[in-house]
Amino acid sequence: MRVELTVNGQNKAADVEPRTLLVHLLREDFGMTGTNVGCDTSSCGACTVLLDGESVKSCTVLAAQADGRSVTTIEGLASADGTLHPLQRAFQENHALQCGYCTPGMVMVSMSILAENDTLDEATVREGLEGNLCRCTGYHNIVKAVLAAKEEMGAEL
Amino acid sequence: MYPSSFEYARAATVAEAITMLSSDEDAKVLAGGHSLIPLMKLRLASPSMLVDIGRISDLSYVRKDGDQIAIGALTRHRDLETSELLAREVPVLSRVAGQIGDPSVRHAGTIGGSTAHGDGAADLPAALLALGATMVVQGPSGNRTVPAAEFFKGFLETALAPDEILTEIRVPTGFSKFGFQKFNRRAQDWAIVGVVAVRSDRTNVSFINMGPTPLRASAVEERLAAGASVEEAASVADEGTSPSADINASVDYRRHLARVLVQRALSELG
Ligand code: FES
Ligand code: FES
Fold first, then answer.
1. Complex ipTM, two decimals?
2. For chain A, what is the radius of gyration of the CA atoms?
3. What is the DSSP string of B95-126?
């Protein structure tokens, strides 16, 4: 079947089998390997992307379900000249990653947390990160990074 | 992991979806996909066709209708969690929905999908059972309604015929007090055991994961109605349940949890 969608603001299309998962469409058909697969069972959040602006686990969404909709991946955050998004910068400045495997998912779910909350406190961030596992950092610096990004961005998102 | 191959069809209306379902008895309805897709990836389900109802826009709503709240089957957990109307009229459902899985799961999963999946370990079916909800079901010959008490038939088995679709869930207002206990080891996990208690002029109690279907805690309800104390009622909580053992808990441990969690949930009612 044919799927047509917007990925990071660009029109994309592919012919896929109906059983193709969104994460495989992104990685294999579009060559966008920023989105990772960790558990493959909707537990770890490594595959998190935004679908119409809201975080979802792309290992548990069919490409067909994203047809006609808008997807944002980690590749879509920095501007064309390579300037990092404030949230990416906050991850860097707060040392919110070590191996980096969980990081694309952590950043994308944090985009949703920032968008859904006019004000943020630590508890809200921790609850927002419930579906994303990190085996390296112990989470503290990730929480700090999200709070720092909110501080910097204010109500901009 | 990939699901095995299937045909995909997207329905624009409920009537069209029913026609598609009638054409293939191995077809399954796809809503948010967060119960079905994991099962298909594990090859525990291999439907020949998926009928995607996810774009039927008029199935997503929470509205007041007399002394009931009508909830469209495609209303997502996130929408339940953030609905002011629901928080005011059926607060237990906002709370329960807000603790399903994690935020990304709640952006996709729907109340109709979870209910039609009928998992005894899921939170919303047990809450709907405690509330005495009514399921509105549409099939080739029109609409019918099924009380929650008759909807959950067996392990992942409901009263829905293969060519029927759950379109709406109606819940009574008036259960202003509730207790909700979900015992798990990590925030996003399924309940090892869970208890939903709601109170209006009577107290209804139901279990998550104490049997193949969601269960009413009848022994507790009867004791309470006869004037027993919370402690007395909770002490018989596991009567009539049939929990199974798994990696998280033995049968005896689940029975123990049931008694403890019923006591806690009833105490929350005040
Ligand atoms: S890979 Fe999708 S949640 Fe882990
Ligand atoms: S940085 Fe290694 S898993 Fe999170």
1. 0.96
2. 15
3. HHHTTSS-HHHHTT-BHHHHHHHT-TT-HHHH
Residues B32, A57, B9: CA angle, nearest 5 degrees: 35
Q: Tell me the C-alpha to C-alpha distance, in Å, between residue B219 and each of B123, B192, B212.
A: 20, 21, 18
Do B66 and B47 form a contact (C-beta atoms < 8 A)?
A: no
Which residues 6+ apart lie within 8 Å of B126 measured at CB?
B120, B194, B196, B206, B207, B208, B214, B215
Q: What domains lie within chain A, and their CATH numbers?
A: 2-76 (3.10.20.30), 86-153 (1.10.150.120)
Q: Is the pTM of this model over 0.90?
A: yes
How far does residue B220's CA lie from ligand 2's centre (Å)? 46
CB contact under 8 A, B187 and A17: no
- Could you tell me the distance, in angstroms and rounded to a whole number, from the CA of residue A15 to the centre of ligand 1? 24
No. of helices (H) and no. of strands (E), chain A? 6, 5
What domains can be seen in chain B, in order of their start residue? 7-52 (3.30.43.10), 57-171 (3.30.465.10), 180-268 (3.30.390.50)
Which one-letter DSSP state was computed for residue A59?
A: G
Which residues are CB-neighbours of B255 under 8 A, at least 6 positions away? B238, B241, B243
B102 closest CB neighbour out of A21, A54, A131: A131
Torsion of CA A11, A17, A19, A22, to 10 degrees: -20
Please report, rounded to a whole number, the percentage of residues in chain B having pLDDT higher than 70.
Answer: 100
Per residue in B3-22, pLDDT (tens digit) is 999 999 999 999 999 999 99
Distant-in-sequence, close-in-space partners of B143: CB < 8 Å, separation ≥ 6: B136, B137, B167
Q: Is the Cβ–Cβ distance between A46 and A101 less than 8 Å?
A: yes
Cross-chain CB nearest to A131 (options B3, B38, B103): B103
Give the separation between CA B112 and CA A41, rounded to whole angstroms: 21
- Amino acid in position A56: V
How buried is residue B172: exposed, middle or buried, by Cβ count under 10 Å (0-12/13-18/19+)?
Answer: middle
Q: Is the CB of A145 under 6 A from ligand 2?
A: no
Cross-chain residue pair A18–B8, CB shorter than 8 Å: yes
Give the gyration radius of chain B's Cα atoms. Answer: 18
CA A151 to chain centre: 20
| Maximum alpha-carbon separation in chain B | 56
What are the pLDDT digits (tens) for B168-210?
Answer: 999 999 999 999 999 998 888 899 999 999 999 999 999 999 9
